[in-house]
Amino acid sequence: MSLTFTQLTPVFAAEASSIDLRQVRDRETLDAVRAGMDRYAVLVFRDQRFTDEEQIDFAQRFDGTLHTRTSSAVLAQSRLGTEALADISNVDRNGNIRAADDRQRASSLANRLWHTDASFVDPPGRYSMLSARVVPEVRADTEFADMRAAYDELDEHTRAAIDGLRVHHSIAYSRHVLGFDFTDEEKEKLKGAVHPLVRTIPGSGRRALYLASHASSVIDMPVPEGRLLLRDLIEHATRPHLTYRHIWRPHDFVIWDNRCTMHRARPFDDKTHRRELRRTTSLDLPLPATA
User: Fold this and answer.
1) Which residues neighbour 195 within 8 Å (Cβ) at sequence distance 6 or greater?
2) Considering 60, 61, 262, 281, which has the largest number of Cβ atoms within 10 A of its Cβ?
3) Which helix (H) or strand (E) holds 245?
4) What does the alpha-carbon distance between residue 259 and residue 268 come to, in Å, rounded to a whole number?
5) Are 145 and 233 in contact (CB under 8 A)?
């Protein structure tokens, strides 16, 4: 199955040629998608009419083990019946738009912060795959930032200073920043994880900053100095020329590499307009030999 890519910004992100991912099972095409991920970090596939089951099937076929330890799973059982499929929507289990004071809505507001999916677990997330099922009539975009290009643009002094640093990531921290608090029992399930501040991406060999709003502290640095460093790096990495803004269409399917991108949801009137997306995220584990 022939697959080509059209780059969307001078730095990264590409739109794929017409292809039905539900039907892709041959290794050659799957490897071509992975090669596209290594080059562009964000891939846009149009008109992908997934059911929930088909999306999970493709995600496992494409990249193995899926992430299930989400903050939403800690707050309540998913209305979708599986924690492997994250419900990125403003709809409750009765099909109604969530109320302004709904606890799930309050937690999901943190998605408007620059973040990296599943950086708060070990192993962390590798690829996220987001399917647009219901797109509102108003703009409800998602922005991405290329952390490889951000690393490339650091001066040598900064690169040397951050090399070898490790960072604690906690989803409870990113929510707490916005005034949302988990219970002690919930916090026990969300202890977080420690990851390098700079990662080398195996497929491309490029180095990338590994940042997120979940990044709460730098190991072996005083907390204030560490947090200031992380804020400065996020500001550096999210300058406009390093970002891509995706305008959603119905049935868009966007795949991104969490090892070398950050992303954030852009605000819209979520108390009025229905929006339903489904996300699968693979864990950064070796692929099965038969993948």
Assistant:
1) 119, 122, 124, 166, 167, 169, 210
2) 262
3) strand 243-246
4) 27
5) no
